[in-house]
Each structure stands twice: as C-alpha cells, then as structure tokens.
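Please go through the protein record below and see whether the fold suits the sequence. Record follows.
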Amino acid sequence: MKWILLGAILDPLVEAEVYVMAANVDYDPLRPRLRALAKGDDDEQLKAALDRLRSLTNEVTERGKLLEELGGESTKLTRELALKDPRMRPRVVVFDECHELFMHKAYGKEAAELAIRVMKKARKVGITLIWVTVSPTADSIPRDVTRNTSHRVAFAVGDQVANDGLLGSGRYKAGIRATELVPGQDVGTAVTYGFTSKPFEVIRSHYVARDLEKGVDEVTPVVERAMGLYEGTGPAEEPTFQPPDPLADVAAVLGDDTRVLVQEVLHRLAERNPDAYRSWGPADLKKALEPYGAQQYKSDGRMVVARERVQDAILERLAEDVDEEGGAEI
C-alpha cells in the first residue's frame, strides 16, 4: 500500500500516518513525509495502533462539528475549506498487517468496534483508512469492516474465504474472483471493487521499484518531490499533463516488431497508459490511426498493425508541423 501513499503525499495538504504491525522496512523511505510511523508486532506497537483508533473516534466527531461551522449550510469538505483551516486537512491512515490487531486477544474486539465506528464517519470529514492484510478471513478482518469499506483490492488469493474476506461476502459466488489470479505470474494484477460504477474491475498496477542492491530506487525521488511540495520548496505550479498521443504511443509499443496483432497492440497500449487505453477496442484503434493512413489491415487472415505504416505516418505528420511553422531555416 506504500504505492498508494506515494500518490497521496504528493498533495501537500495530505497528512499521512502508518501503523504497520510487522517488523519490516517497507515504509521507511516515506518516513520524512509521514506524520507518524509505528512498526512492529509487539504489544507496544499494537497498542499504538489501538490508541490511534481511539483518538480517531474523537477526531471524526470534532471534525464533523468544525465542518458544520466552516461550511454553514453546506457540510461538504472541499479543498478550499481544508486550506482555510489546517484542522480539516485530508488525512490518510494505514493499518498494515491489520490481522495482528484484530486477532489480538486483548485488543481485537475493541479495535474492530472502533474501526467500524470511525469508518462510518471518516470519509465525510476527510479521513481515509486503509486496511492491509495477507490473511483475509472473518477473524483477521471483521466482516463489518469489509462491509463498510468503500474500495476493495484483492491480489491473488488462495480460496473463497480469502476472496470474500477482501472483496465482500458473496463476491466469489457472484463470479468476482481473485482466486483466478496466479501468484508470481499476475504480478501487480488485482480484482477491485468500488473504484468505478462497474460491479468489479481487474486492473494491473504499476510497480514502483526499490532495490538498493541492484541500484534501483524509484521511491526516494517521489518522496523528495513530496517533501519539496510540502515545505514549499517544490515547483510553484502544478505539473501539466499532455493528452495521450495514440500515434506516438502505438509506435512506442510496436518497438522493433514489423507487424503486431491488433489485440496485442491494445494490450501493450493498456499497459503503457491504463487510464487512456484500458477501455479501447479494435474500433478505437482504427479510429485513431485511420486519419494517418496507418490503420490495421489483414495479414494471413489476422488483423495487424504495421510498424512501417505508423512510422511513415509520424514522419508525414512531423513534416506537416514544420510546414505550418514556416519551415526550417538553413
């Protein structure tokens, strides 16, 4: 879940906390930007997580009252209100390996009751709770917690119990099954619920790599940028995002291949930019390439996209752009 946090902390208004009930270093690179980081599965760390749930029950109540004062007739939390009063800043609280807390003999029952109480009010007042577990059962994550969770994500799981423990009761029988994902093969692929109006979606997430032994660290630059934005030393303006360029993207996914099957091109596009191309079909691809004369055609009875056609189309477009700018000087 640290990858979700990487996105959240890029908003300088967000306050993030992590309570990971295991001895691991997954969240250590994010420490500079975290309001709190507690880790470990001893009673001391579990008690810290429980105490935070206790304080959150009071916080959601106080935020509700404050929101009413700030918003007047409108009780909707907006970015403007969060900027106006630091007490209403969005908060993200992660409870990783939460089964350790919910299954604790002394703390488990109270933790479940508090979690449900907080969740019913949290979203309205700008508090997001994230529960993470590798052991999704009725005991390790109570059903009422799952039931009150608006967004659910399940990577590969072993059985129906684990499936419904994460995605909700009855999901397996309804055909919403993370059991069909293959560990080690469907890396980063998950069954999700609540992110769109569809009953469920299968998505493939991007893995932000960090392996210091191999000299790879894509996490620290994100944290450094987040710190710059938070402390006011980062970019003064929000980054601008250009709309996708299907012609250039198709050329990129074709690589050195002379011809590629249409379905494979669509698959590669979806991997390259899921937001832009995940819903595309052959008709969308044809519509995007046809104006340039680079659309798919039949070869050996199968529809393909040719690298040569796409490259010629890009060169022709580039020449047209130069002409429109008045030509190049020599």
Remarks:
- The first strand starts at residue 15 and ends at 20.
- Confidence is low (pLDDT under 50) at residues 325-330.
- The chain has two domains: 2-150+208-227, 246-320.
- The first helix runs from residue 2 to 8.
